Amino acid sequence: MKIQHLDHSCLLVDISGARILIDPGNFSASKVREIAPTGLDAVIITHQHADHCDTDLLSEILAANPRAAVLAEPEAAAQIVGQADGPAAGPGQAPARGKEVVPLPAGSSYQVGQVKVSAIGGLHAVIHPDIPRVGNSGLVIEAPDEKRLGVTGDSLVPEPEFQDIDVLAFAVVAPWSKMSETIDFLRNTRPRIALPVHEGIVNQNGRPIFLTQATNLAPDATQVRDWPEDGIVII
Question: Which domain of life does this protein belong to (predicted)?
Fold first, then answer.
């Protein structure tokens, strides 16, 4: 399995002959446009917020990858096809109007070739009690004879499916979390490899603070692995 970090929470995953792009948001737009991924089998959106689903970027991706399936948390799916208002609907025409978008609620799964994509969780982390929570579909991606990959989206709930998983992309910093919660999440899930994402909200001076503490205080069984310069990790 090859995982490429395209800034913030966007991941390009090549696994068992399938190519999957996850959460192409506005903090990832420059890198995604630089890479210009083609041959995509699926684009997956964990939730509706713009840093995970940039409507203009999604339109460009789908134009270049017309055969790609689009899987999205149900609230985001309704917005993407223009059936509901919200961040993922965009200011103009919905990015996937006229294209089938598969709702991916928690508890459901979808097959992309040999790859099984399962959705877990269901809710975004609490930002503030006065801000309504939106849906969030965490992911488990697996295929025969491959390592299992988990993607939290915007949640630090230690879901059972994340326990002792081979690889887990986790939000190392977020406006809805504090450092102690991130460390406790790693201790409660104990992934073999933890890959930091969602760091687009901090600059290069602040990022090492969060990453260092997560690395030093993670459980012994967990290797917090930073991304190399090219953003590519082979598992």
Answer: Bacteria
Query: According to the model, what pLDDT value does residue 97 have?
Result: 58
SS3 call for 167: strand
* pLDDT beneath 50: ranges in the chain: none
pLDDT at 82: 77
Q: What is the pLDDT of residues 179-204, one digit of tens each?
A: 999 999 999 999 999 999 999 999 99
Taking the C-alpha atoms of residue 89 and residue 24, their distance in angstroms, rounded to an integer, is 14
Q: What letters, b where the CB count within 10 A reaches 16 and e where it falls short, cover 183-208?
A: bebbeebbbebbbbbbbbebeeeebe
Residues sharing a CB contact under 8 Å with residue 229, sequence separation 6 or more, in sequence order: none
Walk me through the domains of the chain, giving residue ranges and CATH numbers. Answer: 2-228 (3.60.15.10)
CA gap 49, 14 in Å, rounded = 25
The residue type of 32 is V
Per-position DSSP letters for 41-72, written without gaps between them: SEEEES-SSTTT--HHHHHHHHHH-TT-EEEE
C-alpha distances out from residue 41 to 15, 53, 64, 79, 115, Å:
11, 17, 12, 21, 10
pLDDT, tens digit, 9 for 90 and up, residues 66-89: 999 999 999 999 999 876 666 665
d(CA 189, CA 73): 23
